[in-house]
Structure of Glycogen [starch] synthase:
Amino acid sequence: GGIYTVIRTKAGVSVDELKDHYVLLGPYNEHCCRTELEYGEPSNEALQRTVQAMRSAGCKVVTGRWLIEGYPNVVLFDVGTSAHRLDEFKHELWEKVCAHRHTLSPRTHASRRTSNDAIIFGALVAWFLGEFRSQLANLGDDPASVPITAHFHEWLTGVGLILARCRRLPVSTVFTTHATLLGRYLCAGHVDFYNNLDKFNIDKEAGDRNIYHRYCIERAAVHCSHVFTTVSEITGLESQFLLKRVPDVITPNGLNVVKFAALHEFQNRHAMAKEKINRFIQGHFHGHYDFDMDKVLYFFIAGRYEYSNKGADVFIEALSRLNFYLKEINSAVTVVAFLIFPARTASFNVESFRGQAIVKGMRDTCKQIEQDIGNRMFELCL
């Protein structure tokens, strides 16, 4: 998803600055690890001891390097191996958070797999942070001389932050929300969201959407964190009204654009990529291909498959209006729009495959004729 992409793209610059002091914690997913992880033990002695202590206590911990830019250290926790301790984790959460601060709801105890996994993962992260700090002390490091910052993304990691603060771990905490949980649901419900931000009964709205327990985790994490950040001003505005805290810092997302050494290299890559798209379009619209490829504009929209939240409705409406204007002025420009959303499909489009095959055959035949005629012309010229 988008948050995974954000962390992935920022890992390179983070490692450049922090080197091996930058460690990513996450849930273990065997399928992803087969292609994205190089297994190995950490080089840091305190980290080694921490991982070993957790393994000795029965928790499966996988370590290695993430095969992305920067090659960062990762520590992954297998949530399933600690599932038998779920009630213990919930009890601590209830005793330390809910009973005294009235922040979380008893509905946290509901048997929902996503929420349960979030609680287990959060408890393992808090355990890891506490154990790591202890191992540093065992090695003679003064906590004041070795500061630790733990950065938590989204409500799914929030329990770890909450427990770390409740246990008074000497760890600085940062919480980032990329979009408020309740905001996502309200937007998907076709309400006039931004004009009514200050009018929502947030507890009722979360309860009506059956996400009150998740909302409470998010809100508690926001208020427990030392530093609270969001990724845009509009998300900061959401947080102010829905989570009741103004962000300390705005950290905008962006593209990590690689600048090519020479302009001609960028132009060559652009030309090659556009030629691939041109060929796809020629095959896809075979039988309806009556436009000039030199006068084609390509538009793209991509993201999670949420029709309103990701702006697909606005994109399609804009295309409709643009189409009207182009016809009105009898323009020779053709707009080809790509809507790229991961969604369930029945099967491949056989007609599209057929068109691609026919066009490829025609292209290969023309190339062969071109080569044959070229050879004959060359012989005659000689």
